[in-house]
Amino acid sequence: MSLQFPQQQQQQQQQQQNSEAAAAAAAKRQGQQQRQAPQTRQRRSRITTKEGITSRKTQTQQQQQLQQQQKQQQQQQLQQQQKQQQQQQQQQLQQQ
Questions:
Q1: Which tens digit of pLDDT belongs to each residue from 3-60?
Q2: How far is CA 23 from the centre of its chain?
Q3: Rounded to whole angstroms, how far apart are CA atoms 46 and 16?
Q4: Is 11 among the domain residues?
Q5: Which domain of life is it from (predicted)?
Q6: pLDDT over threshold 70, residue 85
């Protein structure tokens, strides 16, 4: 018993010191965070604007691709129609 008691006291003292040190460190960190907060906010807004721009870019690219695809489809349809007309004309000629 007499041996354990001083050890317990030592442990309690260490724990107290540790918690005090942790509290001090936390307070320091909080202080730093408060100082850094406005900077991070600015950074965040910059990032979001960048993201906004990139998303707009991708949208325009997609729209351009769609337009190109539509143009190609229209051209193909026209070509097919022309072919069909030619075939019909040939058939009519043959019939005559």
A1: 556 666 666 677 777 777 777 777 776 666 555 555 555 555 556 666 666 666 777 7
A2: 36
A3: 44
A4: no
A5: Eukaryota
A6: yes
Distance of CA 6 to the CA centre of its chain: 58
d(CA 1, CA 37): 53
Tell me whether residue 3 is in a domain.
Answer: no
Residue 25 lies in a domain: no
If one counts the domains in the chain, the total is: 1
In a domain, 59, yes or no: yes
pTM greater than the 0.70 cutoff: no
| Dihedral sign, Cα of residue 36, residue 37, residue 38, residue 42 | positive
16-31 CB burial, b ≥16 within 10 A, e <16:
eeeeeeeeeeeeeeee
